[in-house]
Design goal:
CATH architecture: 3-Layer(aba) Sandwich
Helix content: 25-40%
Function: Catalyzes a trans-dehydration via an enolate intermediate.
Number of strands: 5
Number of helices: 5
Pathway: Metabolic intermediate biosynthesis; chorismate biosynthesis; chorismate from D-erythrose 4-phosphate and phosphoenolpyruvate: step 3/7
Number of domains: 1
GO molecular function: 3-dehydroquinate dehydratase activity
Order of helices and strands: EHHEHEHEEH
Low-confidence stretches: none
Protein name: 3-dehydroquinate dehydratase
Keywords: Amino-acid biosynthesis, Aromatic amino acid biosynthesis, Lyase
CATH topology: Rossmann fold
Oligomer: single chain
CATH superfamily: Dehydroquinase, class II
């Protein structure tokens, strides 16, 4: 069974209540449950993790290198624009990496227009809300 890791960065635990006009009303649990169902229908194993701590996200990426994970779907949130460390960890991962953002970061503040993670990502989906995660998973499962 193929395995995918979904990583959610800082503040995404507040989805549904934090700036719903930007991030929507779905909770992180809603998104993760929909992804688990989609993965199961495709015969994939899925692990979803959220952390407000950069080191925990990096540890999860390191573990994925060794546990048979085929792909990582990551919404690094604010770490998108600041974390060379997450980029370095992703560069050490041999599988597919898809970067996801709920909002269209290119319509927001200028500092959000740059992504370190994009330097490693095989694909980037931004501005489609939670559908972006589902499309990322579809792309991963398609190969």
């Amino acid at each position: 069974m193929s395995k995918v890791l979904v990583l959610h960065g800082p503040n995404l635990n507040l989805l549904g209540t934090r700036q719903p006009e930007i991030y929507g009303r779905e909770t992180l649990e809603d998104i993760d449950n929909a992804l688990r169902e989609q993965a199961a229908r495709g015969g994939w194993e899925m692990l979803c993790r959220q952390s407000n701590h950069e080191g925990e996200l990096i540890d999860a990426i390191h573990a994925a290198r060794l546990d048979g994970t085929t792909a990582i779907i990551i919404n690094p949130a604010a770490y998108t624009h600041t974390s060379v460390a997450i980029l370095d960890a992703l560069n050490a991962f041999d599988g597919k990496v898809i970067e996801v953002h709920l909002s269209n970061v290119h319509q927001r503040e200028a500092f959000r227009h740059h992504s370190y993670v994009s330097l490693r990502a095989d694909g980037v989906i931004a501005g489609l809300g939670s559908q972006g995660y589902r499309l990322a998973l579809e792309a991963v499962m398609a190969g």
